[in-house]
Amino acid sequence: MAIYDLKCDECGHQFEKYVSGFLSEDDKVCPECGGLRISQKFTSFFGSCTTGGGSGGCAPPATGGFG
Ligand SMILES: [Zn+2]
Predict the structure, then answer these.
(1) How far is the CA of 7 from the centre of ligand 1 (A)?
(2) 46 CA to middle of ligand 1, Å?
(3) What digits encode the pLDDT tens for the residues 9-58?
(4) Which of 11, 12, 23, 60 has the smallest C-beta neighbourhood within 10 Å, fewest atoms?
């Protein structure tokens, strides 16, 4: 389960998509204007955080300084 935080580049409408897998092109449609220019801002995954085999999306943002 994942939430895709999307934003329409045509009208600026922001919306979320709840999908059980990957976001398909069919999901990248603005519910407001029907625009197809959708920017993916953020993705939140639910469930266990698995690592390995690819770039992990569970790593927290790097905060603080070094040293
Ligand atoms: Zn739109």
Answers:
(1) 8
(2) 27
(3) 999 999 999 888 788 888 899 999 999 999 998 777 776 555 554 555 55
(4) 60
**Sorting pLDDT into bands at 50, 70 and 90, what band is 2?**
confident
What pairs with residue 18 in β-bridges?
3
CATH code for the domain defined by 2-45: 2.20.28.10
Which string of b and e fits 26-43 if b means at least 16 CB within 10 Å?
Answer: eebbbeeeebeebeeeee
Report the separation in Å between the CA atom of 61 and the middle of ligand 1, taken as the mean of its atom positions. Answer: 29
